[in-house]
Amino acid sequence: MIYYAFSDYLKQRYGEKVYKLPIGLPLTCPNRDGSCGKFGCTFCGSIGAGYENLPPELSITEQIRMNKAHIVPKYKAKKFIPYFQNFSNTYMPPKQLEEYVLEACASDDVVAVYIATRPDCINDVYLEILARIAKEKNIDICVELGLQTINYKTLEKINRGHGLAEYIDAVLRIKRYGLLCCTHVILDLPWDDDKDLIETARVISALGVDQVKLHALYIVKNTKMAQQYENKEFEIISCEHYKQRVIDFLENLSPNIVLQRLIGRAPAENTLFSNWQTGWWKIRDEIVKEMEEKNLYQGRLCNYLNGSAVQKFLK
Ligand code: SF4
């Protein structure tokens, strides 16, 4: 196995292909509404990550119905994962979150619910509700945390409004409640070097995170980062360099962690730069090919946990 792909995980866990259904909620995030920041992360456009979403004014039931109408005939899909994707999907009163999640998992063909949020929007009260729903409905619930990098200096520069500590706290809490945890990482943020990404893989592995989603940076028009890009305050690394970072990241990552993506599907519209004008699948295939040819694989360098210096006394 070159890397532990999400599609393989889904087949193992649910016995067949499972399809994520993106759901948009009428939300904002504390890094936009003034609670911890007003202007958002410097790379984030006004619609967040929701370019794949249906209008948030539609009910969850309606969004699920419309997404299924498209997917079911095309792929003969039978099992689904509603995915609260855009903005911070736990940034609301706990009762509201409970209602949304219950609506999302109302039908028997839902095997899991995935919820994207910020590390500072997770708390024991919310996790208790999610753990209860997971148990009662016999589904998995995965909390997807935006981290992007473990480099707290870069986090400050991109105006994340949280540091590394909030992320670690959130992961430990999510795991304590028996829920799944996914982490989003951007592998080529300006100001991060190659070692930052290796350390990101190591910290994620040490925390026992279940899944990871990797992205390449894309520059959305009319953002602070677009301004910096146009002013040549930073340069984006080459596609070759990105592929190398993915390989280094995978080699250092625990083999038990599922990779939802090696590179995101960046929108071409409204961007100044996205995925080197190359299809994400092409970049993914090239990464896999290079790893196969060089006999590299996920976890090959994951030998630093569980007291690596004393391992020699235990043989
Ligand atoms: S936390 Fe997410 S939604 Fe909020 S500004 Fe940052 S990227 Fe955008």
Notes on the protein architecture:
With 315 residues, the protein is an alpha/beta fold. Helix 7 (194-206) packs parallel to helix 9 and helix 9 (239-252) crosses helix 10 (280-294). The protein has one domain (6-300): TIM Barrel (Alpha-Beta Barrel). It is globular and about 45 Å long. The strands form 2 sheets. The protein has a 7-stranded parallel beta sheet with strand order 1-2-3-4-5-6-8, sandwiched between helices. The chain has helices at 6-14, 60-75, 94-104, 124-137, 152-157, 164-176, 194-206, 224-230, 239-252, 280-294, and strands at 18-23, 79-84, 112-117, 140-148, 180-186, 211-215, 219-220, 258-261, 271-273. The model has no long low-confidence stretch (mean pLDDT 95). Residues 29, 31-32, 40-41, 44, 48, 87-88, 118, 146 line the site of iron/sulfur cluster. InterPro entries: ELP3, Elp3/MiaA/NifB-like_rSAM, Radical_SAM_C, rSAM, rSAM_horseshoe, rSAM_sf, YhcC-like. Keywords: 4Fe-4S, Iron, Iron-sulfur, Metal-binding, S-adenosyl-L-methionine. Residues 13-256 form the Radical SAM core domain. Its cofactor is [4Fe-4S] cluster.
Keywords for this entry:
single chain, 315 residues, alpha/beta, TIM Barrel, 7-stranded parallel beta sheet, two-stranded antiparallel ribbon, 9 strands, globular, binds iron/sulfur cluster
